[in-house]
Amino acid sequence: MEHLLKTNNNNYDVIVVGAGHAGIEAALASAKLACNTLLITINLDNMGQLSCNPSIGGIAKGQIVKEIDALGGIMGHVIDNTMMQFRMLNKSKGKAVWAPRSQADKYAYKDYVTNVLYAQKNLSIMQDIVISLCVENKKIVGVKTERNNIYTAKSVVLTTGTFLNGLIHIGQYQKAAGRIGELPAVGLSDNLLSLGFSVGRLKTGTPARIDKDSIDYNKTEIQHGDDKIYPFSYETNSIDIEQTPCWSIYTNINIHKIIQDNIHLSPLYSGRITGVGPRYCPSIEDKVVRFADKDRHQLFLELESLRSNEVYINGFSSSLPEHVQNQMIHSLVGLEEVKILKPAYAIEYDYVNPIDLYPTLETKIIEGLFHAGQINGTSGYEEAAAQGLIAGINAALKIQERDSFILKRSDAYIGVLIDDLTTKGTTEPYRMFTSQAEYRMILRQDNADERLTKLSFDIGLASEHKYLKVVEKVKQRDKLIAYLGGYYLSKEELLNIGLEKEANEYKSINLANIVKRPQCGIDYIKNIGEVSNYNENVIESAEINIKYEGYIKRAQNDIENMKKYENMKIPIDFDYDLVPSIKTEAKEKLKLHRPLSISQATRISGIDPSVIQALMILLRRL
To answer: Is pTM beyond 0.90 here?
Structure first.
């Protein structure tokens, strides 16, 4: 091993294993930060594959995509250039909680990603399968592949997705695969176990694909996209496309009976599947069992690409045998004569408990080794891409001997995601929800550029042009807010714009207070004075900041109060046995988690305020 490492010519700064959404962001970030980077993937033809639902964004997920873009990642650019339909979710609520979601053309998405990867300076790409890590003195030095190639590097990022000992289930049928029709990564799990990592088993699934030309659309309800498209990337000025609709249908009692009669054939219920599946996205058989009082469940038919006939049945994942799936699908209204192109299936795969990671996503067990994506127990393209970006950044910064890049919970949903994983670990597929972020009024989809671009610019990832664009936006926004606060309307002027209630209540009122009122908004005053001179992004940002001023200030105060805990750092090699008067159980948890700050220690389950107080007193003394 040592001889091979010293004599081979395959030397890199950073190696990224896997070219899914985590691997893409990791490799590009590392290369952009001037590191000689190698991306190793099982199949060059499937880089950036949207293997399940071909959509990007959603509640919390849309915010993450905007954060990835603000930090210099690529996902926002890709979806802006490959979307087929756009919808802004939560529009019935205030703009502060809006979340963008877009249906992607899965083949166009993959092609766009592939072109970007091949064009990136400092990035090499290789098709191979990594079977083990090369480690010396608990430091990563490279990887070994099944073709007996050894590639050396100072940092390695593992982004294995569902390929790590992947096993597909369709009824009694089992097949080792990372996705249907694709090879799994075998051997690497055993290697990770031998190195001391805690390896577990998770499960996810995907629905059947059907032929769009065989659907009876007269029996479905059409779902159009929004008239206005909001780009995911702050660098995209506008998007003008002819949007593709999707269609809504429902399950029925007949399908539920088919499932109940055949539930014993499901590997999920027969015990053949041992991995834990996601609670928030259950299979259709799981829905029928868990929600027995429901006589129907809504489904969506979503076209996967303009280049194919494949339609995705959103909400209908299953691991039942094919003949049962056929009965179920043909019992759906509108799909009685439909042609099934691909069966639904469940897939089990290995993951490593993220409790073994620092907030940089570097592992605590092997120095220089980083994990990102589903190997950390997460699900979702957006969560994976976010982790890949942070891991790629930190892999590069580490070998350049620069300070680590860590996002706090108050900085981004990405900060919440990584803190949850590294502080609490997970025993089931983790998905980001807005309810998990205590500062969600600050972490909006409209202001990710303001929150994060400067941080990215400071490490050399975001361009100066991108950063100065944000500076100008904030400057114009603040100028507009000041203007609105100083411009007053009389009773007569209020009546002229249809604000009778305000005209009866006030002798005069400024434009900012009109915007702030619940039943009003900036649309009422867009054509008054100089308001129309500002661009839409500035106007929208001003409206949100005015309307939610009280909530935003309260959140900012909470963040300031928490800073004293975040700023009190704990050395990595801190001896917790020195902390007096705390239980052995608490000491063992602190040794396991190795929190980097008092703030992180407060979020460890079972660490109560008395332990934190004792820890703070000792740290102050030291």
So the answer is: yes
